Amino acid sequence: MRRAHRVLDGAAPDLATILDEIATDVGPSVGRGRAAQQVPALAKRPTDRFGIAIQTVAGERHSAGDSAESFSIQSISKLFTLTLALQLEGEALWSRIGRRPTDGSFNSLAVLEQYGGKPVNPFVNAGALVLVDVIMGHLPDADEQVLELVRSLSGNSAIDYDIELARSERELSHRNTALAHLLVDNGRLHRGVEEVLESYFLYCSIEMSCADLAQACQYLAQGGRNPLTEEAILTSSLSKRTNAVLLTSGVYADAGDFAYRVGIPAKSGIGGGIAAIMPGAWCAAVWSPALNESGNSIAGTHALELLTTKTGSSVF
Ligand code: GLU
What residues does ligand 1 touch, defined as CB less than 6 Å away? Predict the structure, then answer.
């Protein structure tokens, strides 16, 4: 027998209930896994948090748990730097970065070497370092522009870098430094290693809440348009294609399992956040700091699986 799904639209009365149910259902998963170890300041943060927020294209907003608490978005910043780099270079960007799924760890030197020094996609660290290099090549005030983009997408002018966190990560960044040098050796970076790394860590240190992220990703649910400003952030083609790259490489090496369980494009970060997009319908963000081996939030992934299941949502 075919199972009826609750269909999500602007008038759906039970979306708030669904989020409350999810917050209860994921309870046993919260704290399961390990906080990120790469960034010492993150490793020390508590893991007993869970937040979820959703915003529909019709403007309906709901949240549950610690959805208003700011956390370190880490790799989710790569989605915003990719967007800025696509604004600046369009399709030409892909001559410098590939679109292969992530195989292995997101900071692998071996994978970078294997593909001749060309990053496999924009969401592994090597790819993100090239994104920073691209942005810096166009914009002398790149650090201000990245923050400006995130603030205008989220409608929250208080969003900021956590300079202390960025500094602490920079001090212990042997692997990212090695990646940057390998990129230079292969002619893939045009700026100095130090300045690229400094901005890269700054972007990773952005602090946002689930509610901020659910708003900030709306443009990817709305054909590239920021509903707050009516500005075209990306063309509808580039918005669609950004979602394709998210689906194939937005959640580290878990793209296959995530597509199977959750079924929509998403970007995760080792701070425990995941921003997920149901094109044409809604964006959701979840946060819970304990991670699986790949670097994805265990409770966060579970929550998104429940969300798409309970609402009958999938890009498939
Ligand atoms: N700042 C982290 C790093 O470079 C980001 C990793 C992530 O969230 O994937 O290792």
Answer: 38-39, 74-75, 106-107, 125, 169, 176, 204, 269-270, 295
Q: What is the pLDDT of residues 45-81, one digit of tens each?
A: 999 999 999 999 999 999 999 999 999 999 999 999 9
> Up-side HSE of residue 27: CA atoms within 13 Å toward CB?
4
Type of residue at 61 = R
Cα-to-centroid distance, 152 and ligand 1 (Å): 23
What are the residue ranges spanned by the domains of the chain? Answer: 7-311
What's the sign of the alpha-carbon dihedral 130, 135, 138, 142? negative
91, 235 Cβ separation under 8 angstroms: no
Assign a CATH topology to domain 7-311.
Beta-lactamase (3.40.710)
- Give the pTM: 0.95
171: confidence class by pLDDT, cuts 50, 70, 90:
confident
* Bridge partners for 283 per DSSP: 55, 277
